[in-house]
Amino acid sequence: MKEGDSISEAPFVPYYHEDIESTLEWLRQPQGKPPTRAAALALDLLKCDQDCRARGAGLSSLVPDHLPKKSGPIPACRSFSIPTDFSDFAKLVAETAHQFLILKLKLGSGDLEHDRQIVTTARNSAPGATIIADVNGGWTVQETQQMLPHLVDQRLILLEQPFHHDHGIEPWKELHRLRTRNPAVSIIRIYADESAQTADDVPKLAPYVDGLNVKLLKCGTFGGAVRMIEAIRKQGLGVLLGCMIESSLGITAAAHLARWADLADLDGHLYLADDDFAGVTFDADGFLQMHEGPGIGAVPIPR
């Protein structure tokens, strides 16, 4: 979405089943309530960019002062898709670990032995790395219980969304009971992603998780993401700042919240063949490097 010098974007994600044509039509002439999350986010980020540009400030200036933030370099997370060739996967992990301190594995392949091999290969290839894993709802509670000891053995520190969000709150309660009975596996933090869309979802999950994933698209607005972070911190839980597959424009908008998160998983733009914007990057040590400038701070790449 573009107006004057301000440009914004929002990704379409298959599991939200949002209609692209009606979203684009509404964005051409916004009236009434946005029909989709993508429409709401695109319009909101445009307004945020315009407001911050007028003040000569970045989007991070919209975060209230009372919300504690981190100082110093912000380590970024680098994600891996589920591999089929473990020899290539081992090489990729080893190479990536030379730059990034935190590696994120995708699990939930449909075969627990395959998932175990992913974890083992990653650890052997990057013995000193901090490794976390995202199952994207691919396991049952029982499968999660079976996998946790292996994740402990391989020194993973975090497991995200082990079972599908359609199952509601009960699997989270069940897993919490199982972990309470087995303190040895409780060393791994359990985070929710799709099961918590906005700040309103945080209180019901809070007793059963160690943290939650915050994404701009889930919340629908930049302010909604801030409110979700506030709600998570109010419960004493951890914040994982995530993203969808989007350009550097969307990733840079999300990166303005990185100082208020414990982990920054912001590499969705690296999966694009052509990125139309220059914005947030990573230095040689895998730390986030924000593109300087007011508003979102990403700029179009001349073609």
From TrEMBL:
Taxonomic superkingdom: Bacteria
- The regions listed as transmembrane in this protein's record are none
Segments forming domain Mandelate racemase/muconate lactonizing enzyme C-terminal: 86-185
An example of a Pfam family matching this protein is MR_MLE_C
User: What SMART domains does UniProt report for this protein, alphabetically?
Assistant: MR_MLE (SM00922)
Q: Which UniProt keywords apply?
A: Metal-binding
One GO molecular function term? catalytic activity
Q: Please indicate if the UniProt record lists Membrane as a keyword.
A: no
| Record-given protein name | Mandelate racemase/muconate lactonizing enzyme C-terminal domain-containing protein
Q: Which organism is it from?
A: Brevifollis gellanilyticus
Q: What is the lineage of its organism?
A: Bacteria, Pseudomonadati, Verrucomicrobiota, Verrucomicrobiia, Verrucomicrobiales
